[in-house]
Amino acid sequence: MGISLMLCLVEGFEEGFGKGNGKEEHGCFLAITELKSIGNGEFEDESGDVLFSVAFHCRTFLPVNGEIMLGVVHKIHRRGVFLRCGPMKYIYLSAQKMPNFYYAQRKAQEIFISDDHSKIENDVVIRFVVFAVRWRKKHWDIERDFMILASLEGDCLGLVSLPGSDELEL
C-alpha cells in the first residue's frame, strides 16, 4: 500500500470516526490514540466502495450512575435545565432535583434562583451527580447518543465558581 493511499485512509477513518457518537457498551468516542493496523481492501459490488478493516485504540467516555460531573447550562425551561458535558449533549436536570432552587423569569431571561440568591442561568457551570443513564439508538431526531438525568441532591453539588475574582476594583 502506497504512502499517499495510507494517509488518505487514515484521514478518512479519523473523519468518519467522529460522526458516530459511540456505542452503548463503550461510551462516546473521544479520540484515536493508536492506529494498530489497516487490512487489505475488499471491493463491494453493490456500492462500489472499498472497505478496509482497521484495528485501533481509542479514548472513550462512558457515564455511570453516581458519577460526579461538570456541565454547562445551555437551555432553561420552567421544569428544569439542559446541560452539556464534553460529547454528552442530552443532560437534563429537573427542577425537582434542584433543592432550594426556584424558577423565575426576569424580563426575557429564564433562571433558577436559590434561597441564597445563587442563579442558574445560561453558560453557568454546574457540578452534578448522574442520576440515570439511557442509551438511545433512535429517539426523535437523536441517533446513537446517551441521555442523562442529573441531580443536585448531595454534598458539594451545584454552581461552580470559576477562577478569578468577583471583587470590584477600586
From TrEMBL:
It comes from Camellia sinensis var. sinensis. This is DNA-directed RNA polymerase subunit. One of its GO terms (cellular component) is DNA-directed RNA polymerase complex. One of its GO terms (biological process) is DNA-templated transcription initiation. GO terms for molecular function: single-stranded DNA binding; single-stranded RNA binding. InterPro entries: NA-bd_OB-fold (IPR012340), RNA_pol_Rpb7-like_N_sf (IPR036898), Rpb7-like (IPR045113). Its main location: nucleus. Keywords: DNA-directed RNA polymerase, Nucleus, Transcription. The keyword Transcription applies. DNA-dependent RNA polymerase which catalyzes the transcription of DNA into RNA using the four ribonucleoside triphosphates as substrates. It is found in: Nucleus. It comes from the Eukaryota. The lineage of its organism: Eukaryota, Viridiplantae, Streptophyta, Embryophyta, Tracheophyta.
